[in-house]
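Protein in question kept underneath.
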Amino acid sequence: MSTTTAPATPADFSGLQAAPSGLGWVVKDILVITGRNLLKIRRSPQLLVFSTIQPVMFVLLFNYVFGGALDIAGFQGDYINFLLPGIFVQTAMFGSTQSGIALNEDLRAGIVDRFRSLPMARSAVLAGRTIADAVRTLFTTLLMVAVGYALGFRFSAGVLPAIGAVLLGVFMAFAFSWVSANIGMRAPDAETAQAGGFIWVFPLVFASSAFVSTESMPGWLRAFADNSPVTAVVNAIRVLVNGGPTAADTWTALAWIVGILVVAVPLAIAGYRKTA
């Protein structure tokens, strides 16, 4: 007995809508995805709590355990004013790893595929993720400022430099969130994305001027620390907090941030297309 198979008919995509074009639509889509990711944080407050506990513990430990034993060459003032700029950048770097983890989870859960089926800008998925994580970093940084003020920290250079110091840390988080997004899209699972994100963050943060002066390091390590993006941003924030000539340090920090974005954003977009 033979059966007759009906000839396959081409899929009908006539009902699908084309993605709207134009900068206005792209911005609108990015804002929608950013709001969606911020809503996830609101509905999972434990994530926000755990992401703030760690930097608070670092502030308390470094200030009370190491602060009395450390003599910072060339720095006049309380150790808390030397420490907080390093904590700002550490918070930004550690927080940026969440971008890759969250993006990997969305990919494995099929949520990104659902976004692709909608008439929306594809860049909104990546941009919305990194912007939402930058907003979370802003919240955590402001909390660190409050904790620091309780311990004696003060912005000595004025209001505008203080705003600049906080924003520089947020920009740093935004830039490294794109680096983390590259890792997250290429990792086979969220655990690997988390491990891969922290492998390079720890050496960058601790081999820098974040917590101690680089003058106390061995020559080879000092050469690395003095030329790392973390040291550049920490030094710029430290000047904005404590006063002094800001132009050279600020421009160096901004150059690092822009350079990281120039490299990481196209790579992330290319990786996103390959996952389609």
User: Anything to note?
Assistant: The mean pLDDT is 85. The chain is about 75% helix and 0% strand. The first helix runs from residue 23 to 43.
